[in-house]
Structure formats: structure tokens, C-alpha cells
Amino acid sequence: MRMTDNRRRVVIVSPHFPPSNATAGHRTRLFAAHLRKYGWEPHVLAVDPRFYEEPLDWDLMRLLPADLPVSRTRALPLRPVRVVGDLGVRALLWQYCALSKLAARREIDLLFIPIPPNFSALLGPLLNWRHKVPYAIDYIDPWVHPWPEAEKRFSKAWFAYKLGQLFEPIVLRHASLVTGVAPGYYQGAFDRNPDIPPKPHVSLPYGAEIRDFSYLDEHARPVTLFDPDDGNFHVVYTGTLLPRAKEPMVAVFEAVRELMESSPDARRLRLHFIGTGNAATNDEPCVAPLAEAAGIGHLVREHPARIPYLDALNHLNRAAAVLVVGSTEPHYTASKIFPAILSGRPVVAVLHAKSSASSILAETRGCLVVAFDDRRPVGDRRGDIAAAFRALLRDGIVPDADRDAVLRTCSAENLTSSLAQAFDAILPPRELAATP
């Protein structure tokens, strides 16, 4: 007789999965693409795109492995009455029923739940109580987090915050593993619940997927939001502007204004902000007013609504440089750093010194990082920010970012290897099936 491989099956709960352009769906896509190499058979549980609220990005389907099993459920519709917008809440019943059927057929060895959407995490304890299926929670954002909007009593954000305080301890108590994009994303949950026994945990930053750029190289598309050949120096920022990123953004604009006063060449700068709104369909500018107040509104072009993922990568590819601006919160780790690095463009980054993104970029050739902290507030670093832009304008395109260095440590494949090891550690050793 010989022993055959007995793969374990992990179901990843990802309501916002391609063709949604949500960050959680992208993270699921990267893990699911590589888990098979490490002994795990992935199965994604998503929601039917008919129930998505955001615009659909069908190009993302081209980036999925052709043989990846994906099941899709119904959700509470948004029309004719929009009772609740959160897709995790709207799909909870249907997702639980689908998981129960898989568990009853013994087709789940582990449940993996990236959050947000936060209330999808309730599927973990529900399935564990009913079917004894172990589960892991992946913090893409902190769940219980005092956003400024949550301070307004009886607002939607306030209710979400209070419900998080109620449900997070339940989810955490019964979880077998906790992961997150950085330790700060889940450490607060441990600190708030000291009575819960310590949990295995591991931080896994957003992964770099070079194959996304390879696909773009093979399928050319036009740049629509600026002309790369018009003689200006186009700098591109992609992604939402979070409330606590406004202070660093103001420092960037003030630094550019100061640079214009000392360097006429700075007038060639064109700063483009793409997908800055806090919702997929938001077209309300939030960056342009800050630029106007700083006196450089004529240099800034804002496109608040999100554009398709591959179009966003294409604009990074064709920019003269990429801008990354982080939050004043130490735990914040920007998902946008890896597309910025892999674009091969020089990067100017303004980040908190304790952010893991700051250390990753600082070690990558072609990235100019200005770090701040409580001792050195971002407003005091305007001279360093201006110097970074001056260096770009004076020296032109700096050497390409060192993609190999990033891929050695933060490739989606390597991070999935670490995730699979964490999965293996919380389950009993594999039993290999005997065959003649």
C-alpha cells in the first residue's frame, strides 16, 4: 500500500468577492489562488452579484483561478425597500444555510472569515456550536473602532459600534485562530477582552501579486484620467481617504505649496486622486477642498468614484510617481503599498513610523518615505515631504522599485504559505489515506 495526500478543505466566507472591487474580496482572491500549493483545498462562499450595492468589475473575474470553487448565495435585496445596507447582515441567513449544508456533508475542515463585513464573523460561532467546525477570523480592519462618526449617539455608526462591542467577544472567545493585516488590527480586541484565553494569532500584510501586473502587460488599456505624454509630472494616489488621513494629506499639500515658492519646476506637478470616496459610488470630492485651502487646487485632479481595479493599476503604471498617504493611527497599514511598489514607479509615502507599511516601503528601492509620530508630528515634516518631491522632479524617474525584495517577503504566495502553516497548527495532524 502507499499513502495518498489527504487535503483539508477551508471555506473562505467572502460576501464581497469579484466582481465586487472590495478590499476583502481581493485578499480572499490572493489567498485562494495559492492555498492548494500548501495542502489546503479552498472553497469561497460569496454572494450573488445581483445583491451587490457597488458597481461590478467583471475584469476581476479574469484574475481568478479557472478551477476555484465559488458558491454564491442570495441576500436580502435592497429594493424596493433598503432595510439594511451591510452585505454581511443581508446575506447572513443564506450564508449560514449554505455552510450548514457543507458541514453536514463533512466538506469543511476549517472556516476562514475575513472582516469586514464584520457581522459575517457571527457565522463562525454559529457553525461551531451546530457542527463543531473550527474557525479563524482575519482582521482587515479593526471591528470595534471609535471612528469619529460613531461618537454621534443613535447614528448608524454608533449602533454598529455598540453591536461590535456586544458580538466581538463572542466571536473571539470561540475562534481557533486570529489573523490580521498587522498586529494592531487585532491587538485591541485582545486588550478589550482580557478574560478570553490567549488565541493563536499571526499578522499577514496585504500580499503582492505580480500576476495582476503581468495580466495588465498582456492586455493593454488606455489611460483615461490624464495624458502621460503631455510634459507634466503626473503623481497618482489611489484609494479611499480615511478621516484620520486628512492631516497627513494637508501636510503634503502645504509641502507642495512651499516647494512651488522655491522651485519653479514644481509647477509641472499634477496630483491625481482616484477612488477617494468612502463608498464605491461616492462622487463627492474630499481631497480637492483640502488642496484649494492649501493654495494648490490648480495642481490637483480628484476622481472620487472608484474605477475598475485593472484601470487603477494601469494609471499607477503610467504615472511619473505614486503617492501613498497613511493615517495618524499607528496600526494603519495601507493595502495600496503593494500595487504602488509593483508598478515600478518611484513612490513618495507619508506614513506613521509605527505602521508596518512604513518599514516595508523604507526597505524597498525606489521609495522615499517620510515617517512621523507623536514626537515628530506630520505637520513638522513638511520640509522632508517637499524634499522628496524635489528629488523626484530633479532626478526624474529613480531606479525601478526592487520587486524581488518585496516578493521574497510579502508575495501573496509566501504569505499564503504562512497562513497555511497557521491553519495546520490549530488542527490535528493530517491522516493520510491508505490505498493499494
Could you please describe the fold and organization of this structure?
With 436 residues, the protein is an alpha/beta fold. The protein has 2 domains: 2-207 and 411-435, Glycogen Phosphorylase B (Rossmann fold); 210-408, 3-Layer(aba) Sandwich (Rossmann fold). The protein is built from 15 helices and 15 strands. The chain has a 7-stranded parallel β-sheet, sandwiched between helices. Strands 11-10-9-12-13-14 form a 6-stranded parallel β-sheet, with helices on both faces. It has a two-stranded antiparallel ribbon with strand order 1-15. The chain is globular, with a radius of gyration of 22 Å. The termini are close together.
Summarize the structure.
37% of the residues lie in helices and 17% in strands.
Shape: globular
Mean pLDDT: 88
Number of domains: 2
The CATH architecture assignment of the largest domain turns out to be: 3-Layer(aba) Sandwich
Under CATH, the homologous superfamily of the largest domain reads Glycogen Phosphorylase B
First-to-last CA distance: 4 Å
Helix and strand pattern: EEHEEHHEHEHEHEHEHEHEHEHEHEHHHE
Note the main sheet.
7 strands, parallel
Task: Name the features.
alpha/beta, Rossmann fold, 2 domains, 7-stranded parallel β-sheet, 6-stranded parallel β-sheet, 15 helices, disordered C terminus
Q: What is the strand and helix layout of this fold?
A:
Elements: E1 2-4, E2 8-13, H1 23-34, E3 40-47, E4 70-73, H2 87-90, H3 92-104, E5 110-115, H4 123-131, E6 135-139, H5 156-174, E7 177-180, H6 183-192, E8 201-203, H7 210-218, E9 233-238, H8 246-262, E10 269-274, H9 288-294, E11 300-303, H10 309-318, E12 321-325, H11 337-342, E13 347-352, H12 356-362, E14 367-372, H13 382-395, H14 403-410, H15 412-426, E15 433-435
Helix pairs in contact: 1-15, 3-4, 8-13, 14-15
